Amino acid sequence: MTDEDAMSGAAPTLDQARRQIARYGLDADPRAVLVAVRLMAAGAQLDRASEVHFSRSGLSTGRYRLLVDLEDDGGEKSPSRLAKSLGVSRATVTGLVGGLEREGLVARRASMEDGRGAVVVLTARGAQRLRDMAADHFTRLESLVDGLSADERALFLDLLVRITRRIGVLTAE
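Predicted structure:
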């Protein structure tokens, strides 16, 4: 399979990138543009697949990430700390917590440190949901990358770190 047909229909080919760059009279590396565009397309595909995947357990990607973040942090955290660690707004956390609370997967209680504030607590039911889905979830994650060797996985992780450090160039003024 060539670069040109690797993701046919999902993202431009190298020839399309070259034509677009030429059409606008730009001095850009077509392969660099193609890598970025395909990465964006892959991210969108992963987002859609993740939602399907987590919906099998009655969750969304965001709700799953919140539960895992709580579990990793000893089972409780303030909404503002959740927002920061998840990279979302406080309003998003409020919405996620509301849905999880209705299902009994988390609870809110007054903060022991600050009586005015609240913390979100992972309930036994929430911890059990994570345990129940763990085997299938991790098997699917491993299967997603089983076409890569151990060395390729290490390289891919390095490349992801290097690329994600530069994501701000898309949103910079």
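Summary: The first strand starts at residue 76 and ends at 77.
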